[in-house]
Design a protein that fits this description.
Oligomer: single chain
Distance between the termini: 31 Å
Largest sheet: 5 strands, antiparallel
Radius of gyration: 23 Å
Number of strands: 14
Strand content: over 45%
């Protein structure tokens, strides 16, 4: 799910980057904010940081005594992406294993669907392994699959989420396959 959130942040401008022109200072603040924002990646509460949408406020700068750098408190709005239990999502299969598949959805790289959560699908080994049901519907690499989120785990060391998903529910399964693309 995409969220729009407003965040406070501290931006530090090195003394050598300061200049009397206000426009150049505002530009430096925006550049530093974007650099810091892009390196943050994600938090457990808000999910993955995607984009700064608006800079709401730049507070009064405070000079840091030992360095001469100036700290500006800013408030900005941004878009984030976070998975929730029970949410329906479309993921792209990027790895097929005997016991299940790994999918990607937006910035989330590790979404796992066990073969036990793919009712009526059976594993077909080979050079390009896949799962297939009696109706010849295939779950293979690069196929988009609509699934439901069963569980989410935050990995602090990696600053990323992992998720478990299932096809158990109405209108879930592959939404594209090779046959429908030709």
């Amino acid at each position: 799910m995409f969220l729009k959130v407003q965040l406070p942040w501290n931006v530090i401008i090195p003394a050598e980057c300061l200049d009397a022109k206000g426009l150049m200072l505002q530009r430096q603040i925006i550049i530093r904010l974007l650099e810091a924002f892009s390196s943050k990646k994600a938090t457990q509460e808000l999910g993955y940081f995607l984009a700064v949408t608006t800079l709401e406020n730049i507070g009064e700068g405070k000079v840091r005594q030992h360095t001469g750098d100036v700290l500006f408190p800013v408030v900005f709005s941004c878009l984030t992406f976070k998975l929730y239990r029970g949410e329906i999502l479309n993921g792209v299969v990027h790895k097929v294993l005997k016991h299940g598949v790994f999918l990607r959805c937006g910035p989330v790289e590790n979404i796992y669907m066990s073969c036990q959560k793919m009712p009526d699908y059976r594993y077909v080994p080979g050079e390009n392994p896949l799962f297939m049901n009696e109706k010849m519907s295939k779950i293979e690499k690069d196929v988009v699959v609509r699934c439901i989120v069963m569980g989410i785990k935050w990995i602090e060391a990696e600053r990323e989420f992992q998720a478990l998903v299932s096809l158990e529910g109405d209108y879930l399964g592959p939404v594209s396959d090779e046959a429908s693309l030709h």
